[in-house]
Amino acid sequence: MICVSIGTGSPAEAKKVLQNTGFIELRADLLSWQASDYADVIRLGGKLIFTCRPGEFNDEERLELFTLAAESGVSYLDVEIESGEDFIQAIRKLTDSHNCDLIVSYHNYEMTPSSESLENILNECYLAGADIAKIACRAYSGADSARLLSLYAITGRKVILGMGKAGKITRIAAPFLGSEFTFASPSAGSETAEGQFNFTELKDIIHKIQ
Fold first, then answer.
1. Which residue is catalytic, options 47, 98, 107, 203?
2. Above 80 in pLDDT, residue 43?
3. What is the DSSP string of 155-167?
4. Would you say residue 121 lies in a domain?
């Protein structure tokens, strides 16, 4: 299953991608939409992840957006493990009351930690209340990607990906190793993470392997 990550463009363009692919992620921290725009896209139907990473908005503003997304019928809410216990629990209450899944995610844009550290991070995501744990780390080598992919041997719902050129193999391998989904961009030049294939590319590659 391929999720198309949306970090640019208009609500109308996002709707078109959702209609064409059936599964998108809305990156509210990268989009400059009105709050009502998110609800409008979510209510279109299909699978949808909503996230708003720290930085652009304070926690109160983020919680308001997460609440709007949950009330609009989103499939998943994605919150970072670094957000802290109180904030994660507030999002957990939203997912519990609105019948959607909680993704607790960890991103490392600098490196891929050791196997022991990765396993500890995965555990922390589950202990924080994750239905799905997501780990995305910058990979510089095949060894980095192999360490990430080895996490699929551990029980639990998860999405494990490598960022950067060396991590591209993880985006292809993930669906075959038990990942809940993998990520792609809508088109070339609209990537929300380095190393993403565009949707058509990734769909074709996976189809050929199957």
1. 107
2. yes
3. SS-EEEEEESGGG
4. no
Q: What is the mean pLDDT of residues 45-63?
A: 93
Q: Strand pairing partners for 103? A: 78, 132
Q: Which residue has the tokens 């050929």?
A: 208
Give the tokens for residue 156: 């639990």
| Residue 165 falls in the annotated catalytic set | no
Residue numbers of the domain that contains 174: 2-103+167-209
Q: Is the pLDDT of residue 47 over 90?
A: yes
Tell me the pLDDT tens digit for each residue of 142-175. 999 999 999 999 999 999 999 999 999 999 999 9
- Determine the distance from the C-alpha atom of residue 182 to the mean position of all C-alpha atoms in its chain, rounded to a whole number: 8
Question: For 34, how many CA atoms within 13 A lie in the half-sphere containing its CB?
Answer: 4
Asked whether residue 150 is assigned to any structural domain, the reply reads: no
How many residues are there in the chain?
A: 210
Report the CATH number that the domain containing residue 31 is assigned in CATH: 3.20.20.70
Specify if 178 maps to a domain: yes
Catalytic residue (choose from 98, 134, 165, 203) = 134
Note whether residue 89 is domain-resident.
yes
Would you call 107 a catalytic residue per the annotation?
yes
**Per the structure, how many domains does the chain have?**
1
